[in-house]
# Entry
Amino acid sequence: MTRAATIDARSPVPKYYQLREILLDLIEHELAVDTPVPSERELAARYGLSRMTARQAVEHLVSEGRLYRVQGKGTFVAQPKIDIPLRLTSFTEDMRARGMTPGAADLGRRTVAASAAVARELGLAAGDPVHVIERLRTADGVPMALERSHLPASLVPDLLERSWRNQSLYEVLAREHGIILDRGDQVIEAGIADSGDAGLLDLAPGSAVLLLQRRCWAGEAAVEYVVSTYRADRYQLRASLDVSLRA
Ligand code: GLP
# Structure
């Protein structure tokens, strides 16, 4: 550690929080991803804190996803999180823009009768045929998200006749069906991975995830309703905030 940061015992800011800020600075400016941070014992000695205070700071950063622990080995710097794009981009485009290689594993595809809920999202009648495509999305081979897309079968009848391994749905829609998505909406909420999804995403059961529901259209036609599960340890939400004077 090269920075001469110290804990101010007279500050109203709790000591564990001051140590958290010092560690955050190190994580962001000095330590590479996957390198160890000093042990709680070392931190306590270096900053004149109790072990408990050092542990509290480290635990905070673990729960924020900035550090991760490996049993018996120590605590390491986690990868920075990826911003969920708030635009109508595809996973493929987004990963390529970040210099990562997008991937997709085909977990299943079938045509089913739309449930009332799915029919409502796609503007169909319950029972109308919808194609369901389930994929595990990867970035540089690492599992990032599960996506369950529903598309009206009448719009793209032969969509399931291909493998979806490492394919971009939006590219296939554009290239082979002339469907260019031009509008969408998205809901993002917190969730917990069930054991099936956790296994596929390489997470411990009960881990936090982000649940996304997206609907998109091409002109007047509703094209896709997708329910996605994104790893909360790898993704975060960033939004720009406008000050609006109008109600
Ligand atoms: C994002 C969206 C999904 C969409 C997918 C298409 O991941 N969250 O709703 O289905 O992009 O991506 P691609 O064209 O790479 O298959």
The chain has a mean pLDDT of 94.
